[in-house]
Each structure stands twice: as structure tokens, then as C-alpha cells.
């Protein structure tokens, strides 16, 4: 099983949340979606969190940093249209992360399950529980 780590899961790891860290240690393969990488890095740079940035780079050495394929962008566009039709829009970052997972067959690890739970076909796990 390959797990894609949402931005909030990465934040929990950077804060060394014991529950999330235990799941992370037991996972065979974890990938960082490119949008989550961007969100974490921009946040750490914005507040000059150099110690956390070093820890983030160590996480990036352990985890693969994914790339968005054309297929993932197509899925993202479809998710956007589907959500818009039913009047339930979602943040673009969440759409991109979900599409990345769906295109690659990854299970999304997030504490923000409500952001993703209605996206058809998306496997979700919450490591905070």
C-alpha cells in the first residue's frame, strides 16, 4: 500500500505527533503530493522555521515527492466540475491532492477527512485517531 500524505499529516509529523508518527513508521511506502510539498515548504519559509524546514527535508529524503501527471490534471478538472454541479466546491489544493491519489492509486492520509470524503473512489485514512 502506498500512502499519500496530506498537508495536515505532514504538519503532524513535523510536530512529532506520536500517533501519526507510529503509523508513518509502520507504512511501507509514503509519497508527498506536490501540492502538499508546496504548502508545507511555503509555510515554513514564510515564518523562517529553519529547524522544521530541516526536519521537512529529512522527511522528503524518506518519502518520494510525487509529480502531477496529465491524467491527474484531467481527474482534477473532472472533480472540480462534479463538485461545482452539486454546489459543493472544494479548495483547489484539496482537489489536486485527491486527483494525484486517484491517478496513482494511492490512499490519502489526512486528518481533514471531511474535505475528501465525498470524492468518489478516493481511499482515505486518518492517522490522528
Topology:
Layout: E1 2-5, H1 7-14, H2 18-26, E2 29-32, H3 34-46, H4 50-62, E3 64-65, H5 70-85, H6 92-104, E4 107-109, H7 113-116, E5 124-125
Parallel strand pairs: 1-2, 1-4, 2-3, 4-5
Structure, described:
This protein is an alpha/beta fold. Helices cover 59% and strands 12% of the residues. The protein has seven helices and five strands, in the order βααβααβααβαβ. A five-stranded parallel beta sheet has the order 3-2-1-4-5, with helices on both faces. Helix 7 links the parallel strand 4 and strand 5. The radius of gyration is 14 Å and the shape is globular. The mean pLDDT is 96.
Essential attributes:
alpha/beta
Structure in a nutshell:
The longest helix is centred in the middle third of the chain and has 16 residues, at 70-85. This protein has helices spanning 7-14, 18-26, 34-46, 50-62, 70-85, 92-104, 113-116; strands spanning 2-5, 29-32, 64-65, 107-109, 124-125.
Amino acid at each position: 500500500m502506498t500512502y499519500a500524505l496530506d498537508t495536515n499529516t505532514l504538519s503532524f509529523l513535523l510536530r512529532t505527533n506520536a500517533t501519526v508518527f507510529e503509523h508513518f513508521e509502520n507504512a511501507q511506502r509514503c509519497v508527498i503530493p506536490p501540492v502538499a510539498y508546496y504548502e508545507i515548504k511555503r509555510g515554513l519559509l514564510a515564518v523562517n522555521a529553519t529547524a522544521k524546514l530541516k526536519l521537512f527535508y529529512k522527511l522528503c529524503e524518506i518519502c518520494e515527492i510525487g509529480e502531477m501527471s496529465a491524467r491527474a490534471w484531467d481527474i482534477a478538472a473532472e472533480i472540480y466540475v462534479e463538485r461545482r454541479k452539486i454546489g459543493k466546491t472544494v479548495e483547489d489544493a484539496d482537489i489536486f491532492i485527491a486527483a494525484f491519489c486517484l491517478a496513482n492509486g494511492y490512499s490519502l492520509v489526512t486528518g481533514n477527512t471531511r474535505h475528501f470524503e465525498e470524492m468518489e473512489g478516493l481511499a482515505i485514512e486518518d492517522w490522528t485517531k
